[in-house]
Amino acid sequence: MTAQQTELRVLPSDLKRELLPKHVAVICDGNGRWARHRGLPRIMGHKRGVESLKQLLRTCNDWGIEALTAYAFSTENWKRPQEEVDFLLTLFQVVLRSELREMMKESVRIKFAGNLNALPTALQEQISDAMEETRNNRGIKFTIATNYGGRQEILSACRAIAEKVEQGLLKPHEIDEATFESHLYTAGIGDPDLLIRTSGEMRISNFLLWQIAYTEIYITDALWPDFDRDEFYRALLSFQKRERRFGKA
Ligand code: FPP
Prior knowledge:
Blueprint: H1 3-8, E1 23-27, H2 31-37, H3 42-63, E2 67-74, H4 82-105, E3 109-113, H5 121-133, E4 141-148, H6 150-166, H7 177-181, E5 194-197, E6 216-219, H8 229-241
Parallel strand pairs: 1-2, 1-5, 2-4, 3-4, 5-6
């Protein structure tokens, strides 16, 4: 590794390790616009988007961030042109296949959050193999929200809890925040400290509705394929200046 590469792996000196977010979530928006600005097909934006996500994962791992959650495919994304949906689903498979070795080397724990049953069977199998293979890794927890919708997640948790109540396994008064959380797709991952959205849109778009109750939000005009290490550094600097009160005075 060159000296410059080693330097990039070290936390920049003006970021305080003790004030880093433990869990970062990202809404990867703007792939289509990035491609359009270059006169390229939208799918080229998604290809470049994967590169941005890989770089962010590496940076988070290098800088000691414990969890990264990325919104890759929403329940609404099925409404895109069939060609684009097919490309995205194939891209997930290709990337999972090509990156799994590297993620094992970096000790990444991969998790997928969403209604996975609706995905193509081959992708479902790859997802469960990747989760199983990386289950005992001790590095960063990398969650890819795929066919994910926050409202759908809450409804699915409600249904699962109601079934337990119906079966007499749970009493209504026993349903607390911890019980509820353990029925979410993101069970065990915890709430994000920082949510980043690219491409300047001021929306949550049905992402992690339960989990972001006290999350700090950072919005940048950068399009997702342009979201690089410097952009992330700026998001962290902004986060470190915030005073988090969690509802207290
Ligand atoms: C939003 O941009 C992006 C997506 C719907 C796809 C996001 C996917 C990735 C970043 C790749 C993830 C890959 C893996 C393997 C996890 P947009 O198409 O909505 O852009 P626009 O708003 O400019 O049209």
